[in-house]
Write a structure and sequence with these properties.
The chain is of the alpha/beta class and 458 residues long. The protein has two domains: 2-213 and 408-430, 3-Layer(aba) Sandwich (Aldehyde Dehydrogenase, Chain A, domain 1); 218-398, Aldehyde Dehydrogenase, Chain A, domain 2. Helix content is 41%, strand content 18%. The chain has 16 helices and 18 strands. The strands form four sheets. The chain has a seven-stranded mixed sheet, sandwiched between helices. The protein has a six-stranded mixed sheet with strand order 5-4-3-6-7-17, sandwiched between helices. The longest helix is centred in the N-terminal third of the chain and has 19 residues, at 64-82. Bound molecules: nicotinamide-adenine-dinucleotide. The site of nicotinamide-adenine-dinucleotide has 26 residues, from helix 8 and helix 9.
Length: 458
């Protein structure tokens, strides 16, 4: 442990040397990282297949390709993001000038989960490097093949005083670091339960945090929605990565008049994506481990299986499954499902549906399928959520111009694109006042100056 803390201190020295601040340095680091990721492309695919049975195509869209797209955007814009931002100066302070400077935070800790093990560690890494920080990376121990490839990439590109890779059991190595070293920021992606532990440890040293957590993202299908399209756009993200996606539609709330039609449309859409036997489909994922598998299959008894329901413990396979007749009080409606089981509940009035959603407030995402802009507006205003999509699901997170993050139990803070740069930068307020003008009214005694001060201060 002593050796680890010494390495963290070396990071602080390196950061304090100022080496990471210049634009040219940051850009070069990002280019080096890009090249190494490109060189390891096949190894990344093989590792993600070993850990989660992901196809190359799925990896490209959700892991390394996702990262590459955002990296290109960051490289194209970094220079302008780093420019000090001139802001107006109020009357009281004229003729001063004012600007906001973005300065790096320092030594930041980034903690990743196992479901998108590459993207969810490397995308925040990109933001932290772009903002001029040194970084400690903690991958999830539950995606070991991907963790090993990422370690190789990091060792190939960065000295440990700039990016330190710390694998291992999170419950052991994270407290060992956070309880003995004051990071300048902790960026955590994972479950809400562990998020609370991280938040408490950070609070001890008043370390700021970004928490990218989970939750139950509802998907509302109104009576005027295009049901065939809704079924496809719900099934695609729900069963991608076998449902192990933080923003996957967790459950569907469909207007009762369209419940049967939606279920029939889902039953058509799923075999179009995965054939009649998803177990044989290359592109269909597997559950990460036995613990998660055993947790998920318990939910199968929380309703009537109207599609799917097969599973195989030996290969950690669970078929895409639709559950009808699910009670709002069942376990599947309390926990984040994080697996390929989709409960369908119905509603007659918006109030009824809102009451169900309110049982798990502030979801990471909210999805509304409707043909009416009045309903769209009403729903977007009715459900506080980290992000939202209208007539689609999850894809908001692929646009780097949108902030991605939760609120309340689904997290705090946001990232992607410029928002990552902002997350890993401190906004330093700077005022510069010339010396050629120095009126007496700015100094005591202030007696008799109230009228003037009222005008000046406003
Ligand atoms: P997790 O919370 O179990 O683990 C995440 C990280 O925390 C891992 O690196 C792990 O080593 C570490 N960790 C585990 N226990 C710890 C402890 N006691 N003390 C300190 N660190 C500890 O999460 P997970 O199972 O890897 O991921 C699934 C969860 O993450 C789901 O809830 C999902 O919704 C959420 N998630 C959120 C996002 C998002 O962007 N908001 C993305 C992916 C996953």
């Amino acid at each position: 442990m002593q050796a680890l803390i010494a390495q963290l201190q070396q990071q602080r020295h390196f950061f304090e040397s100022g080496a990471t601040r210049p634009y040219a340095f940051r850009k070069q680091q990002l280019l080096n990282l890009k090249r190494a990721v490109e060189e390891h492309e096949e190894a990344i695919y093989a590792a993600l297949y070993a850990d989660l049975h992901k196809s190359k195509e799925e990896c490209w869209v959700t892991e390394n390709g996702f990262f590459m797209a955002e990296l290109k955007d960051t490289l194209a814009n970094l220079k302008s993001w780093m420019e000090p931002e001139a802001v107006p100066t109020n009357l009281l302070n004229l003729p001063s000038s004012s600007k906001v400077m973005r300065e790096p935070l320092g030594v930041v800790l980034i903690i990743g989960p196992w479901n998108y093990p590459f993207q969810l560690l490397f995308t925040p890494l990109m933001g932290a490097l772009a903002a001029g920080n040194t970084v400690v990376l903690k991958p999830s121990e539950f995606a070991p093949a991907t963790a090993a490839v990422m370690e190789k990439i990091i060792h190939a590109v960065f000295p440990p005083e700039q990016v330190l890779y710390v694998p291992g059991d999170g419950a052991t190595v994270i407290p060992a670091m956070m309880n003995h070293f004051a990071f300048d920021h902790v960026f955590y992606t994972g479950s809400t339960g562990v998020g609370k532990i991280i938040y408490k440890m950070a609070a001890e040293n008043l370390v700021p945090v970004t928490l990218e957590l989970g939750g139950k993202s509802p998907c509302v299908v109104e009576e005027d929605a295009n049901i065939t399209i809704a079924a496809k756009r719900i099934a695609m993200p729900k069963f991608s990565n076998a449902g192990q996606m933080c923003v996957a539609p967790d459950y569907v709330l469909v207007h009762e008049s369209k419940r049967v039609e939606l279920i029939e449309a889902l039953k058509k859409a799923i075999p179009q994506f995965y054939g009649n036997d998803a177990a044989k489909e290359e592109g269909y994922g597997r559950i990460i481990n036995e613990k998660q598998f055993n947790r998920i299959i318990q939910y199968l008894s929380d309703g009537t299986i109207v599609y799917g329901g097969k599973y195989d413990a030996a290969s950690l396979y669970i078929e895409p499954t639709i559950l009808d007749g699910v009670s709002v009080d069942s376990t599947i409606m309390r926990d984040e499902i994080f697996g390929p089981i989709l409960p369908i509940l119905s509603f007659n009035t918006m109030e009824e549906a809102k009451a169900i959603i309110a049982k798990n407030p502030n979801p990471l995402a909210f999805y509304i399928f409707t043909g009416s802009s009045a309903k769209e507006q009403a729903w977007l205003q009715a459900v506080p959520a980290g992000g939202a999509c209208v007539n689609t699901a999850t894809l908001h997170l692929t646009n780097p111009n949108l902030p991605f993050g939760g609120r309340g139990f689904s997290g705090t803070g946001a990232y992607h694109g410029k928002y990552s740069f902002e997350t890993f930068s401190h906004k330093k307020a700077v005022m510069k006042t010339p010396t050629w003008f120095d009126p007496a009214l700015k100094y005591p005694p202030f007696t008799g100056k109230l009228k003037l001060l009222k005008w000046l201060v406003g």
